[in-house]
């Protein structure tokens, strides 16, 4: 990890936006006169968002794990579908940083720190934060911030990113200090705007976010509840997850917490109003229309719900407890996997779990036992397998445990047993990215031509949607290499380099591959297309004097 929390700094830079006066904020009218939407096309916004994610990967800030990614993206998809812009594609990703933070940027890219998930107590709270960030996207807060920055001749978005890249490209022992200096300088330019405009944007994102939260079937109290815990954690430096004042991109105070509680009460009041009006549809509709005129729309009904006036998750008969919570049942397992994977070292993770064991009278919970087994997978696969097998007896349908046990068996050298378990999971979940990637990586570790070909076979169904997936590209490259398909392996390695923020390396690899005489027409066309797409990025970086440090050392 780099010494400076890059994701938090980027989120501070990207959070700028012009905002209405407080009086206008409560009754927000559609923004039909803003030029923000004309500043960058949706495709251009997505391009900038993808560029930022590649840079974060390049400097080692992202946490790339198929199980965690799948869980996080599933929450984002659910919230996005119930947002004010369901047509927008949202790309969610996790960062290793244990500070409490999350941020949204152009193109629907939303990052969340591991520390935020570790601080949350349930999935509804994670969803509350994500719904807030999605609201920043739907209201174009970031895009408006870029518009304002451009008008003031402060190109913050790209200027900050260029400064980071330039500082890192300088190399040497002072590169970390240079990066920090570049970021602090950039932040000093925007600090006053941040003070002036963040409060209104945050209030708007809270208000719209809680509406999305309710529409998605999550607990509307989760937003205020998490704000309270975040405030306490930051104030008291709880668990080592606190963030310095100047990096608090989402300031929490008593007013904001109180407003979140009031909005939750208002949404519940709408539900009661609709519920008491069953049998009087005319009056119910009139009440809903009055609420709509006040600027807070009722959520749409959940699929299959009988009363179209009720918000998602309300059960009149009270026969479906738990429907008012959107918890997928995966939160605790995701949280502990993150705890294991975000620790600085395996030894540090073990110490953390020992502290958790001492803090509980009945020892570690089952998800915590799973997290400790994940830590031990690398060094003690036999011990991990025993723990996972015991847990799986109590939770027989748990994918997290089943994948972990298969992985542990493979690492012990029990390849046939592990592969039978993987095959069964693949049969049950044929389109699952976590299953396919974990199985393919196990086959690659087992080695051999047959293993490589089987890994290729497992991964090919994901090819169509793996264009922006560096974990897939790296795994597919190694599988092709083992199988003897060196040309396809070279393509995938080049794609992985590009997605991990090394476009110059990717271009050189593709140019080298193009010189081979054994490429067929289809492969050559694919390579030519990628060269044409990557070359402008490399030329622009060179124009700015930024070179890949690995290329410079050659």
Structure write-up:
With 554 residues, the protein is mainly alpha-helical. 65% of the residues lie in helices and 3% in strands. It has helices spanning 6-14, 22-26, 36-39, 42-58, 66-81, 114-119, 123-138, 141-151, 156-169, 175-215, 222-236, 254-276, 281-293, 331-342, 346-359, 366-376, 381-394, 399-411, 415-428, 433-446, 449-459, 470-483, 486-499, 503-514, 521-543, 549-552, and strands spanning 91-95, 102-105, 109-113. The chain is globular and about 70 Å long. The chain has 26 helices and three strands.
Can you give keywords for this protein?
554 residues, mainly alpha, 3-stranded mixed β-sheet, 26 helices, 3 strands, disordered N terminus
Please outline the helices and strands.
Layout: H1 6-14, H2 22-26, H3 36-39, H4 42-58, H5 66-81, E1 91-95, E2 102-105, E3 109-113, H6 114-119, H7 123-138, H8 141-151, H9 156-169, H10 175-215, H11 222-236, H12 254-276, H13 281-293, H14 331-342, H15 346-359, H16 366-376, H17 381-394, H18 399-411, H19 415-428, H20 433-446, H21 449-459, H22 470-483, H23 486-499, H24 503-514, H25 521-543, H26 549-552
Parallel strand pairs: 1-3
Antiparallel strand pairs: 2-3
How do you describe this structure in short?
With 554 residues, the protein is an all-alpha fold.
What is the count of DSSP helices, taking H or I runs of 4+ residues? 26
Number of strands: 3
Between the first and last Cα atoms, what is the distance in angstroms? 25 Å
Strand line-up in the sheet with most strands = 1-3-2
Which sequence of SSEs, written as H and E, runs from N to C?
Answer: HHHHHEEEHHHHHHHHHHHHHHHHHHHHH
Low-confidence stretches: 1-34, 152-157, 187-197, 238-247, 275-325
How much is the radius of gyration in Å? 25 Å
The residue fraction in helices comes out at 55-70%
* Overall pLDDT: 78
Shape: globular
Structural class: mainly alpha
- Percentage beta strand: under 5%
